[in-house]
Design the sequence.
């Protein structure tokens, strides 16, 4: 199964800003999903992303630190998480 993730300019800027500080942004950068456009994500990378996203919540923290939860990127990331089966 393949998944998609759309990143707009604001989203790419947010990923660059958070960069290595958090797992969610670092893994997006490492896998090349930090640029503007619609990215097709294969199953194994989707699970890698999900694991990184969840690792930021250890200790009772919220998903996607430093990212506005009302942003298009947050909406896209939450939708991706919901789609992974």
Sequence:
């Amino acid at each position: 199964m393949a998944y998609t993730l759309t990143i707009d300019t604001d989203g790419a800027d947010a990923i660059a800003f958070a960069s290595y500080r958090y797992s969610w942004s670092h893994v997006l950068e490492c896998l090349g999903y930090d640029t503007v456009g619609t990215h097709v994500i294969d199953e194994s990378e989707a699970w890698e992303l999900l694991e990184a996203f969840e690792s930021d919540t250890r200790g009772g923290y919220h998903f996607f630190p430093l990212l506005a939860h009302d942003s298009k990127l947050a909406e896209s990331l939450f939708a991706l998480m919901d789609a992974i089966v």
